[in-house]
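Re: that backbone. Tokens:
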């Protein structure tokens, strides 16, 4: 690991904002709703969304909409992705991180839009320091790109990307319905059937330094549409809700689902991309696996016209997704600043006298 970016103030890993590591209350979910406590993370039962009776499904769609509007973040259970496949993906990527440096060398100097990238931090150096993370990023669709070693990674990644893509596309249909649209409308608007997909493996080494935690990845929202994430049993994902940072603690077997910037744009700001970050601390390494779907690279993403009656209240202009991704990936992570290139700028100064 080359260097660190650790917090050495009285505020553990805040990136300039006051925060701690509050525990998220836990209890068994009932269908779809929130876990116990006022700050409980919403839980979506995927089986109800797909197979529930009409009244159950209608209620689930409404609750899903509230989760997207109030949080931009939820857990999904009964999702159908085998635990064995998730474990195989995690273990194979763990094996990749342990390979000798020379076997990964060709991917270490890759740029933001290269199909395979192995590195440290977000984009090499952020504010002059490296963040406490190793990662593998690989494009999975329209074509799977995969390092040659370990040899089994390609087959595992191909199956995992297909399973998680199907799950995310099904969630996209339900989200579209929650906006009062036809189930296929959002997918149509962003050409999600020909979607762009990325797989990311993150490895956060143990940290037992002078502070309680280090910053694995700074606060940001994702550039894509929806992100699916699971981890290896070591907590570290924090999400910002109602101005507070909360430590996200998953239910057994659940995925986290994170709303990205493209959902915020296409919904005209009704659903917000979730601001989140990763912290590290303790004697155990943390790993997380990400599957992200996004619009086709050449799709111009803009608010669905049905959500902007008569063009009034337009919050975002159309931006080609490839351009948006390149912009976000080539600059330092700074909250949701990347959205500014798509945001409609209004002159609030009023007329001159």
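Recovered sequence:
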């Amino acid at each position: 690991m080359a260097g660190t970016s650790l917090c050495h103030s009285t505020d553990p890993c805040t990136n300039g904002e006051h925060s701690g590591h509050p525990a998220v209350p836990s209890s068994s979910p009932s269908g779809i709703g929130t876990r116990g406590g006022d700050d409980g993370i919403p839980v979506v039962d995927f089986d109800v969304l797909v197979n529930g009776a009409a009244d159950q499904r209608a209620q689930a769609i409404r609750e899903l909409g509230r989760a997207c509007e109030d949080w931009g973040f939820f857990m999904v259970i009964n999702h159908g992705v085998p635990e064995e496949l998730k474990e195989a993906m995690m273990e194979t990527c763990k094996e990749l991180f342990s390979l000798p440096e020379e076997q990964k060398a060709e991917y270490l100097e890759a740029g933001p839009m290269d199909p395979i990238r192995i590195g440290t931090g977000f984009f090499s150096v952020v504010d002059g320091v490296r963040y406490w993370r190793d990662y593998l990023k690989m494009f999975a669709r329209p074509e799977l790109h995969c390092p040659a070693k370990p040899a089994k990674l390609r087959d595992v990644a191909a199956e995992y990307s297909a399973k998680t893509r199907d799950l995310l596309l099904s969630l996209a249909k339900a989200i579209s319905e929650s906006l009062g649209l036809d189930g296929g409308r959002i997918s149509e608007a962003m050409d999600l059937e020909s979607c762009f997909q990325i797989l990311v493996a993150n490895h956060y080494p143990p940290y037992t330094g002078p502070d309680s935690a280090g910053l694995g990845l700074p606060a940001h929202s994702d550039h894509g549409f929806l992100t699916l994430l699971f981890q290896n049993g070591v907590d570290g994902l924090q999400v910002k809700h109602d101005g507070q940072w909360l430590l996200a603690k998953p239910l057994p077997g659940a995925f986290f689902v994170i709303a990205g910037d493209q959902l915020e744009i296409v919904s005209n700001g009704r659903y917000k991309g979730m601001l989140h970050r990763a912290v590290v601390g303790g004697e155990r390494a943390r790993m997380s696996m990400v599957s992200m779907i996004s619009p086709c690279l050449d799709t111009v993403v803009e608010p669905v016209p049905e959500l902007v009656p008569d063009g009034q209240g337009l919050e975002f202009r159309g931006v080609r997704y490839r351009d948006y991704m390149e912009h976000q990936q080539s600059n330092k992570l700074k909250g949701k600043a990347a959205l500014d290139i798509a945001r409609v700028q209004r002159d609030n100064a009023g007329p001159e006298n």
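Residues 327 and 338 are 7 Å apart (CA to CA). DSSP finds eight helices and 15 strands in the chain.
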